[in-house]
Every structure is written in C-alpha cells, then in structure tokens.
Amino acid sequence: MLHIPLFFLFLQYPLIQAGGYLELRLKSAFPLNATVEITEGIYFPTNKRTYSMPLVPDETRILTNIPVRFRHPGTVLVNSGPVEKFGLEYETIRSERWNTIQMTIGPDEIHLPFTGFRIDIKCDRNWYGAYCDQFCNADVAKTINRRCTDSGTLGCPDHYYGPNCDKLINHNWRKCQCQNGGFCVSSFPRLSNPTLGTVKDQLICECPLGFEGGKCEKESYEYAEPITVEMYGTDHKWDNLQQFYNRSLVENELRDLDRF
Hints:
By secondary structure, this protein is mainly beta. The protein has helices spanning 4-12, 138-143, 238-247; strands at 20-28, 32-40, 46-55, 61-68, 73-79, 88-95, 98-99, 103-105, 109-111, 114-123, 127-128, 134-135, 147-148, 154-155, 160-161, 167-168, 183-187, 202-206, 211-212, 218-219, 227-233, 249-251. Residues 121-165 form the DSL domain. Its main location: membrane.
C-alpha cells in the first residue's frame, strides 16, 4: 500500500492542464430567438463565439461548458430578438468586461422580456482556486479520508481537523472567525518533500464567491452593475417601447438558483 505522503504528490501534481468553463442561464416571459456572443480581449475582441438560444416562456435555458481562459478579459452579449407586441426589435444585455476568474454574475433585477440572467465561471473537475489552477484529485482524496478544499489543498472531511482528522472543529470555531458566510475547514500544506511523515493541518476559512481574505472579510468582485441593458425598436412604436422599458424591470429569477 502506498504511504499517505506519496498520495499527496499524486493528488497535487497533475499531468494535464488547468481549465474552467462558462455557464450562462437565461429565462424569458416570452418566446424568443435569442443569440449569445462570447468574446475575449479588450480593444480588439478575439475568439468570438456565437450561440443560438431559443427560449420558451417561463423555462430556464442553459448554455454550458464554454471554455474560458483565466486571467484574460472577456465579455458576454445577449440579443433577445424581436417582441412585436411591444415594438421591440431587440434588447441587448452586455456584461462588464471582466478579467476571467471563478465568479458569478447575477443582478438583482432584469428587464423584460428576460426574467432571468446568470453567468457562472466554474472550474473543471479536480481544479480549484480563483483561477482554477490548483489541482487536487477529489476521488483519491476520499480514499485516504481527505477532501479537496476550495483552494486546492487537502483537508479533513467537513467539521473535522487534526493530523488524523479525528477532532471536531465545532469546539475551535473561534480560531477561524470566518465572516460573510465563510466556512471553517481543515487544510494541509502542499508538500515540497513528499517523504515527510505526519503533517499538521491548520484551520482556514473557505469563502463564498465574491469574498476573499483570511476571514472572508474582503469583497473580491463588485456585483453592483454587472450588466448594461439597451432596447431598440421601430420609430412608429417608440411610445410603446418607452412605456415597456419604464415598466419592464423585474426581479431576476436566476439570481439565487435555489429560490425559484
């Protein structure tokens, strides 16, 4: 049987390249022939990819597994297509141009004809960290009674800590003092010498997306104005379109996925 420290080497030094993907969710109150453009770059956008997303009223449509390059700028542009009833030729939703990092973009409110909009940038399986560049094999970790932390290190199963993962964290939560919904977990250091014997872990805070720091005390991403919305219509129905715009702001049903 392999000695546990050798497992650490296998768990944390892969032969494959890091990566992640973009996932977009849309929902509409009307039938739409929406299109989505995803681009990279700032002044001269490159690698533009266009996708068709026909929407059925009150059903969520998901576009997923779109490869992204971390630490590179990117943006998403959604075009609704026409809604004749309101004189709308099309509405565009444009995300802020971001420096690609693991994150979620979901405003509190959205303009009709859309009723839901959400972007998630996620890590591929067994990749962790803000830029999805830290490897940890979750399946192998389970075989030695360990788990992969959000930062890609090995840790004890939830609620436990110690070299043998046999102590309850409940009695030591003050050592973490996590803020903003952070969760106190065990983390073993990455080994520079895999032949070392027993390794001592430490308690750290796993932060929800949008927060960082040793205690999750700092905001890492600004959610205030993640998108801009523009509407376009025909001149002879401009009054209808203006009224539609003024009354079209609704709660984003995809802001929190477990609410609807």
